[in-house]
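Objective 1b: paired records.
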Amino acid sequence: MNNIETRLARLEERQNNLELDVKEIKSQLNETAKRSDVQELRETLEARDQNYTRNLWRLVFVLIVVFTGILMMAVGLKVSDLPTGLF
């Protein structure tokens, strides 16, 4: 009888340890990134990159206009001196 009780106690201990391990694994799974989280992050980064690129091109065009204006002022040209149809 003692042998059965010992085995039963060991089995109960192992079951408790397994339940604790399962709980720990479940909590770790909840903390890890899921596929939907990664997809959402990818979409957010792509949108940010598109916005950055669009704003960078705007900046380039503004700088070209400013540089052209400064150059025209340095040379002494006015907008009315430019050929018609440009503006």
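Objective 1b, second protein:
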Amino acid sequence: MILPVGIYQFKTLSGSKYVLEITENKCFLQRFNQNFELRRDTEKVEVQRIDSLTVGESAVFFLEPLGEGVGTFRFTTEVVELVVLSRKKE
């Protein structure tokens, strides 16, 4: 999945709020949820690939290694809202 350079926010059915920042060369994801904690919550984690980000479906990201290994998949609950906070002007 390819999204334009910009900053996006999406919310999931579990109540998590994510901020996705896409630059020319890198992509970062931050997750916020006071009720359910995951490893490295609130930290900017580098996204190596966005496999899915569609309202009505689970989002799927392949992230930088969060421990040992080559990377980590992050699957969310259903995305209920996706908004553009800012986008690079052409």
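The CA atoms of residues 63 and 72 lie 5 Å apart. The mean pLDDT is 90.
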